[in-house]
Each structure stands twice: as structure tokens, then as C-alpha cells.
Specification:
It contains nine helices and ten strands. It is α+β, with helices and mostly antiparallel strands and about 280 residues long. Strands 5-4-3-8-6-7 form a six-stranded mixed sheet, with helices on both faces. The protein has a two-stranded parallel sheet with strand order 1-2. The protein has a two-stranded antiparallel ribbon with strand order 9-10. Helix 1 packs across helix 2 and helix 3 packs antiparallel against helix 4.
Length: about 280
Amino acid sequence: MALPAQDERTLPAVVLRDVDTRPLEQVLAELQLLVEQHGHVIVVCSRATPTAVRRRLHTLRSLLESDRIALFRPDLPPLGLAVLVRQLRQLASCDLSPGVLASAGRLLTHYLHCGALLGSVARLDRVPVDLKQHARSWMPGSQFAVLAHPQPQLVRLGPGTSLDGPEFGTWMLVAKGQLQSDWVTATLAPSWKVQGLRESPLPAESPTWWGTGRLIEFCTYLPDLSVLYQLVTSVRRSTCHWCGIDVIGDRCVFCSATPPGQDAPPGSPAGNRAAVG
């Protein structure tokens, strides 16, 4: 899901639809055109994305033989993923190099708090659920407050129920599914001292990710572009020894190479070179 622009500087998103079902040549041409138009492309998808889609994305990147396509799969629920993508779209209007912008995705995930109010946790498999909570999920009227990121937390809703929230000022985005409750907006948001509250349609992937359509998903985030920019530019930059692009962090998001002396991930250029050498 592509969220509406946060401000007039936020760049539009391009949604790659039906990547695994459309003809390969058609999707390949679409992605090649994006690279030609923009120079670099950051493809963000959920870790819950079907295997067929992930394989097709890697196939497309290999066929284009391009280190100008970054595949980023953060471990976030659907609404949090949409928020992160919008933050990257905000930053794309700034004077950041492609490598730094793509690397910023990993940094900004640390400033997101993502969760949901669920009517059942019987099919929830992305947050630990003990047997007692699983049994209680079958009781009529039971509701559960769940935090999926940054640290998993699950509690049955009741008087005084709370979740560990951010220790800095944020805004909250709320997406309502089939569950009827004002707990997120009337109780959780004030307890987290959110500075602003907005609503959004529920992402299509949310019922599958959370295991139920009876939910209200939420995510807190930093909305101010100047704050996001300051966070990213305050981190030390380095140059990838393999492709020469500027990055922040310990791994290049475009070629997957790690600094010399560190273990490279299997299949990366650095890892392959080590295997051959």
C-alpha cells in the first residue's frame, strides 16, 4: 500500500503489481524503465511476501545485471512497512546519495513502533503466543493488544492494559479492520503521548499478516522531514569497497558486499569472490 504524501516534497511511489503473475518480459521492461528514469531503484517488500514474488524480484535484478536495484525486506507489519516507504519517499527529495537513502531504511526501522489490537490470536504466528493466550482467544469478546516491533509484546486487553511505547515524540497512524474498539485512539495513543493522530485504510496484506481480519493496526513514526534528515546525516558514511557507492551501516544495500574482514552473506559478490579465491 502506498500512503498519501506527507508533504508537498514527498515523492510519489511506484507500486510493482502482480510481479509473479504477469509475463516476465512485461515486468522486466517496467523495472528497466524505472532504472533508466531514476538511476537507482529501491524495492521494498515485506518478509511475508510470497516466495514466488521474492524469486521473481531476484530474477529481474539478475537479468538486468544491475547493482542499481536494491531489494529491501524489513521485518515490519504491513502498516509499518507503508510508513517506512513514505519516510524514504520524503528523504528522496533531499541531497542524499542512492546508497545512503537505501541504507536509511534499516536505520529508520528503529524509530517505528508497530502493533495491532486483535480480536483473536489463534492464527497469529509472527509474535510469540503462549498456550494460555491461545486458549483465551477462543473466548467470546476477547481482545489482545500486540506489539510486533521493535520488541514483541502481547497482552490480553483489560483494565490498565498497556504496551511499551516510544520514548520520543511521534505521530500515530491507525488503520481499522473489522474490529470495533476505541482503545487504540482513546487509551493507547494518550499513554504513548503521541503528538498527532491520523487514520488510513487497512493494507490488503494485514489480515494475513496478523492472522485475522478483526483488527485495528497502528504504527507510530517521526513525521518531520528535518528530523529524519538529521538522523540519517548524523550517521557515519563509508564507501562500499565492491561497487564504490556511499552507504551507512555494515552492508551495501545494492551489491550486498560487507566491509573487508567481515563475513559476507552467501550469494553476495564479496561472498562469491571469497569462495572462488
